[in-house]
Amino acid sequence: MDRGTLTEAAMTGALGSVFGFVATDWFGFGFVGAVVAGANGLAGGWSGIYDWIRPSGWVSFLADSTWGLVGTALGLLLGAANLLRSDRDYVGDLSTRAGRHVFVGGLGLRRGFALTQGNVVSNAGGSLGLRGESRSVTNRRRFVVEHEGLHVFQNRLFGPAFQILYGAWLVGAGLIGLMVAAFSRSERLAIIETFAYYNNPFEYWAYRNNKYWPPKDAVKRFAWPPSKMTYTSAGEDRDT
Fold first, then answer.
1. Residue 62 and residue 69: Cα distance in Å, rounded?
2. 74 pLDDT band (50/70/90 cuts)?
3. pLDDT, position 232
4. Which of 9, 63, 111, 190 is close enough to 45 for a disulfide, judged by CB 3.0 to 4.6 Å?
5. 41 domain residue, yes or no
6. How far is it, in rounded angstroms, from Cα 199 to Cα 193?
């Protein structure tokens, strides 16, 4: 490992700790905030995910170290879990100076679904992968940038409200979907998933950002009103 990488990791780790302590000390969690933000700084500096030349890189680092600390902590746990997996396959060209850590494989909640927490995108390749020059891989890489990248941005923008609102919608809309599905003779699980997951405003925003709406697995009659955008093979795999 070169000296520049070690220096960046040390500096971002130290600066992150300061930001994390200041942001959480008012609530009595200064030590925890310092540890989480410091660890994120070390990992981010070691991998070089922050673009220090652009203002957006500094804003991303500041958000990850303060307002977005809940998601950052979840991302650190996800990243740590991936380090124990042989299928993780870190993608440097989608991570370096891009403000995120991208793993082709790693931990996922469901086959074909990427899992994004904080600035960590796990199982990003789904069943398509992120290596090679085929059209499906190119589309999948675009999906990671436009959809999963937006989830990283959402965590930085909304902070702890992101996790709270996402979870509240998942439960509340899921219950509504369950009641609607009870009156249906088919597609019951898909109906529940459409209400709880696909219609989640954060997911709707991300799918629309990738120009993949309505997703092919959503029950169209219960999905948000579709725009002129239609799904393509790029969205063959899904995410959370």
1. 10
2. very high
3. 55
4. 9
5. yes
6. 9
